């Protein structure tokens, strides 16, 4: 057996912040009791690690990709008048529609040189745009286009500030196109074509940044994954890919009903993980994130108009620290039988992610993912015992986001351990199926107003009310770890 470096305190989270949900798995010191099982004992539902062969992406020049602009006539405007602020022509809504259509046409049917010609960002900025173009063209997508959203400021000394939305639907993964918004500064001299002089985002609430906004990428496509990773790290990606694939295969087997065929995983360095998280309250670099991006309703677009309507559904993305996985594999040379724990954890979040307006209990959301991530492949009892020795038998389950995400390392570790113990108890007393079904049932329970849904789930699965279950669970914790 060996220590498991990416679970350690096993911290993960899911919070709703202006339409963006996050589930974060982070590590800390002081949890050396969590160890990997290198022998047998793998549950029947677990699929072993197997070699992974990448598959060929779909042809990206297919005219069917990103065709919705064809039904939206390109808008034109009259000869622009000079600004009284900077001598530039202010952008109108019609101009924004024309610019977005031009960007989509180049992204779909044009060349990298044509894409670069749309920008004047300096050498570093141009290289990042070229890298972005190559990355989003390499990812298999059924929708890939820029949509006009709004003219934020028509007349500034630097030009016009506009918002465009990158609508993209990854093949086999996304139920609807995802939304990532960009704030562009556009310089337009009278009588000349507009040139984009600055590119920024609106923050994680609108999907920015993703890994393709931060660096040059390689894209690997398998039957169940679309993996984005930094260029030049192909050997490390190849080493950890079987463990990612095994983890996703197990999550799909154990949890999915109408889940997607694939998950989109971004393997990033720790700085890029923090950048994608985009939450200054987080004090420790997370090991993994499960985020959702807002969806786009393409059918609701107005021909020739601006504004991007939201879809009822959203899109899931997973981000994992590649440095941690690569270091673990290099040190130990093996992958846990059921795949990487962090991927199992985040995969559960992605598959169970449902209506973002529903607020399941936080101990459920993190407990089921932590339990499943560790289940059978890792020794958790010493970790649980250490936590109980430090905090005592829990009087109640954690209910505050601060306990998991924004407090001390010790408080966060305890919250994750206590939550996972709930499902370990269910697993060992009623069996794996009951533990899973409680997790699935409670993921749709809205506890913002009352706990009736929680009682209903426990009564159906265990025959106990939640209060009765919690009392029995507390007795088990005391007898086992106290």
Characterise the protein shown here.
There is one protein chain. This protein is an alpha+beta fold and 482 residues long. The chain contains 14 helices and 14 strands. The protein has helices spanning 93-109, 112-116, 122-138, 234-255, 270-277, 322-332, 341-352, 362-374, 381-391, 401-406, 409-430, 432-443, 452-462, 466-481; strands at residues 2-3, 15-17, 20-26, 35-36, 141-156, 159-170, 178-187, 195-201, 217-221, 225-230, 263-268, 286-296, 310-321, 378-379. The chain starts with a strand and ends with a helix.
Count every helix, treating DSSP H or I runs of 4 or more residues as helices. 14
- Report the β-strand fraction as a percent range: 15-25%
Distance between the termini: 24 Å
Overall shape = elongated
How would you classify the helix and strand content by structural class? alpha+beta
> Roughly how much helix do the residues carry, as a percent range?
25-40%
Strands, count? 14
Major sheet summary line = 7 strands, mixed
Unreliable stretches, pLDDT < 50, 5 or more residues?
1-24, 26-45, 58-64, 66-79
- Largest beta sheet: what is the strand line-up? 2-3-12-13-11-10-9
**How do the helices and strands follow one another from N- to C-terminus?**
EEEEHHHEEEEEEHEHEEHHHEHHHHHH
The whole-number mean of residue pLDDT values reads: 85
Q: Please compute the radius of gyration using only Cα atoms.
A: 24 Å
């Amino acid at each position: 057996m060996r220590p498991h470096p990416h679970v350690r305190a096993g911290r993960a989270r899911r919070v709703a912040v202006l339409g963006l949900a996050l589930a974060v798995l982070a590590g800390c010191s002081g949890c050396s009791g969590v160890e990997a099982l290198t022998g047998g004992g793998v549950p029947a539902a677990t699929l072993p690690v197997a070699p992974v062969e990448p598959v060929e992406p779909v042809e990206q020049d297919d005219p069917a990709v990103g065709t919705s602009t064809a039904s939206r006539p390109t808008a034109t405007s009259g000869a622009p008048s000079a600004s009284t602020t900077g001598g530039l022509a202010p952008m109108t809504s019609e101009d924004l529609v024309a610019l977005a259509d031009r960007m989509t046409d180049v992204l779909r049917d044009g060349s990298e040189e044509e894409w670069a010609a749309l920008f004047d960002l300096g050498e570093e900025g141009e290289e990042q745009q070229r890298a972005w173009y190559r990355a989003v063209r390499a990812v298999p997508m059924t929708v890939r286009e820029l949509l006009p959203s709004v003219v934020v400021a028509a007349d500034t000394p630097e030009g016009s500030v506009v918002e465009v939305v990158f609508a993209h639907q990854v093949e086999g993964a996304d139920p609807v196109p995802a939304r990532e918004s960009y704030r562009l500064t556009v310089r337009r001299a009278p009588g000349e074509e507009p040139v984009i002089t600055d590119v920024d985002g609106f923050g994680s609430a609108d999907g920015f940044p993703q890994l393709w906004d931060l660096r040059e990428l390689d894209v690997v496509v398998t039957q169940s994954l679309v993996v984005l990773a930094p260029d030049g790290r192909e050997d490390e990606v190849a080493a950890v890919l079987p463990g990612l694939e095994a983890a996703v295969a197990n999550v799909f087997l154990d949890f999915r009903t109408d889940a997607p065929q694939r998950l989109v995983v971004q393997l990033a360095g720790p700085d890029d993980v923090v950048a994608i998280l985009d939450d200054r309250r987080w004090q420790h670099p997370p090991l993994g994130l499960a985020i959702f991006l807002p969806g786009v309703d393409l059918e609701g677009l107005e021909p020739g108009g601006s504004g991007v309507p939201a879809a009822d559904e959203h899109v899931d993305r997973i981000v994992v620290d590649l440095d941690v996985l690569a270091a673990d594999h290099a040190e130990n040379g093996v992958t846990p039988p059921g795949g990487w724990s962090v991927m199992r954890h985040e995969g559960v979040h992605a598959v169970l992610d449902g209506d973002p307006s529903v607020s399941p209990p936080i101990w459920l959301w993190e407990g089921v993912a932590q339990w499943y991530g560790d289940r059978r492949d890792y020794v958790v009892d010493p970790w649980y015992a250490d936590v109980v020795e430090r905090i005592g038998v829990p009087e109640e389950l954690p209910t505050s986001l601060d306990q998991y995400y924004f407090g001390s390392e010790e408080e966060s570790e305890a919250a994750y351990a206590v939550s996972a113990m709930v499902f370990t108890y269910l697993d060992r007393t009623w069996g794996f199926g009951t533990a899973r079904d409680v997790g699935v049932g409670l993921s749709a329970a809205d506890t913002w107003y009352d706990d009736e849904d929680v009682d209903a789930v426990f009564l159906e699965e265990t025959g106990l009310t939640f209060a009765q279950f919690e009392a029995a669970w507390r007795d088990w914790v005391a007898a086992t770890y106290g």
